[in-house]
Amino acid sequence: MDLYYAIATLGGLGIIFGVLLAVAAKIFAVEVDERVEAIQETLPGANCGACGYAGCGSFSEKVVAGECETTACIPGGKEVAAKICELLGMETVETKPQVAVVACAGDSEKARDSFIYAGAKDCRLAHQMWHGFKSCSYGCLGLGTCAEVCPFEAIVMGDNELPIVDEEKCTGCGVCRDTCPRGVFRLIPYDYEGHFVFCNSRDRGKVVKQACEVGCNACRACAKACPQEAVTVEDNLATVDTEKCDNCGECAAKCKPGSIKPVTDKKAPEAVES
């Protein structure tokens, strides 16, 4: 008889706790917007963080809540942006695809080293050791950290120790740009066919010449020669405005170090594998 009582008691308690759990689940349930899941399914799923959030799930929640632009998923491009707008009942926003470019032509032959580096093969760690082993404190260290972190495998290292960006794979997510301790990566319009300054140094001309053969010395000859006023020199570095440049080549013709080149192939000069 005691056994029956024990079974009945346990059974009764199980029913009571089950009911309590069901009620609690109902009361404390968090409603999930179906659009969040639908948007997440349309995303590339790379969780690259280019949108500024932890991953695709976080981005989906933010865009549904109106706290994030529908175009913030850079890898997804205009197709994903259009699908998101459709799911949210919004007008489609036009986006321009971008591609990463290495703003440095100081390869292993043209850029000098200050000392022999024998540490870990990581640009971030090497940069922390007396600001890197390169004489130019702004140039590419060439250890390949950018290639390792690229979520789309769009970067490989060339024989000259400069990164090579595969324009077909690159989505313009900006992970390489945000990871590089030297900030040598730039994002430019994918269809841009003008000129580009393949240098990242902000040092004065004399210092640049001592460190690199192809570094911009801020002589301003390029800016004076540009008929479209697309070239400006600020903080000892020339910059080409991609909106104004008409690819006339006057800036490149006046650039003695050869820092300015056409960017038709979307990669740094000499950054090709043999």
Can you tell me about this structure?
The protein has 274 residues and is α+β, with helices and mostly antiparallel strands. The protein folds into two domains: 34-88, 3-methyladenine DNA Glycosylase II, Chain A, domain 3 (Orthogonal Bundle), CATH 1.10.15.40; 98-262, Alpha-Beta Plaits. Helix content is 33%, strand content 11%. The chain has ten helices and eight strands. It has helices at residues 2-28, 34-42, 56-64, 77-88, 123-128, 145-149, 175-179, 205-211, 221-225, 250-254, and strands at residues 98-102, 155-157, 163-165, 185-189, 195-197, 231-234, 237-240, 260-262. Helix 2 (34-42) runs antiparallel to helix 4 (77-88). The protein starts with a helix and ends in a 12-residue tail after the last strand.
Tell me the helix content. 25-40%
Strand content: 5-15%
Please provide the count of β strands.
8
Domain module count: 2
The CATH topology annotation of the largest domain reads as: Alpha-Beta Plaits
CA radius of gyration is 27 Å
Coarse shape: elongated
**How would a crystallographer describe the biggest sheet?**
2 strands, antiparallel
The separation of the N and C termini measures 89 Å
User: What's the helix count?
Assistant: 10
Structural class: alpha+beta
